[in-house]
Amino acid sequence: MQFARFGRTGLSISRLGLGTATFGKQTDEAASHRILDIAAEAGVNFIDTADAYPMGADLSLVGRTEEIIGRWLKGKRDRFLVATKAGGPMGVSSWDQGASRKHLLDAVEGSLRRLGTDYIDLYQLHIDDPATPLDESAEALDLIVRSGKARYVGVSNFLAYRLARAIGRQDTLRLVRFVSVQPRYNLLFREIERELLPLAHEEDLAVVPFNPLAGGLLTGKYRRDRTPEVGRFSAENGQFGALYQARYWHDREFETIGKLQEVAQGRGIPLATLAIAWMLANPRITSILLGASRPEHLTDTLAAIDSALGADLKAQLDDLTMHYRRGDAVR
Ligand SMILES: NC(=O)c1ccc[n+]([C@@H]2O[C@H](COP(=O)([O-])OP(=O)(O)OC[C@H]3O[C@@H](n4cnc5c(N)ncnc54)[C@H](OP(=O)(O)O)[C@@H]3O)[C@@H](O)[C@H]2O)c1
Predict the structure, then answer these.
(1) Architecture of domain 3-215+271-309
(2) In degrees to the nearest 10, what's the CA dihedral of 51, 155, 118, 34?
(3) Ligand 1: which residue has its CA nearest to atom 40?
């Protein structure tokens, strides 16, 4: 395993982290625990979840993912950096989501209970909530850290200008500062290289991207003319299936994957390994959140840690996917 400093904190964390969004819906508890075991055996010490996982139309499932992780963490809590998020829908009341003081103070209690822990290492805003003043969320998060319920705070899915404003308010008000950002990032979606990564570099924020395989597309397992019946891109996945189709299921993306496959085959490594290795080769990326719905999925992605890209190969992949960095590729 490789380790990296977590932004401006004193923490060192594994450069591969484990995402858990499949746990409790697509992946049952036994398989989820096996996935956690495999990641831990490989040296992963960073686990990411969210109170609203597993996400979907069915609110009766929310919280299950944290419960599954909580049961696995028993007896080994201190060996892992546990990150969760608040802001996604947790109930039917109008305040059961978002980043209001009321919701955040309630949400942290729920996460602590489900995770079976008395502290969260990294507490993240799952989304930017423009309806709540930034100062209100920042003050609530400050209280959460000062009361010992969380050790660090971060954001996910924030635009660079909003994060810059939020940090400015935290500094002005002398509140606990965000230390990390969790954006979507992969070979087919490089928008963050334009503004968010430079901001993170300047402010020494940890960057922990999600969706490194574009929901599985960057394994090369899909064909443009065959819509899958199960998994991330399927109709069975409801609104998220439709969302992933809209994001990635296009001629241009499949053409790029064809070219990336040729490169991977030429090097004799699986495309999934190459896609993760490309992210690891970027020193501005702190830790990559791997996703898996089956234990065997981790074989190719964990292998990236031993597949350092040379400068030539990194440059070749950068060039092949340059158009996903520009504004015209943003969906
Ligand atoms: N902050 C946010 O808004 C946000 C959003 C999304 C995710 N996340 C976090 O980031 C984590 C990872 O994101 P992600 O799940 O989108 O990552 P991803 O790597 O883009 O997609 C993971 C999916 O790809 C497929 N897959 C992975 N490895 C494979 C392999 N070797 N062979 C074949 N298929 C494979 C599986 O889906 P199928 O089984 O369906 O094919 C798996 O669930 C999540 O678990 C979550 O913790 C955060």
Answers:
(1) Alpha-Beta Barrel (3.20)
(2) 60
(3) 231
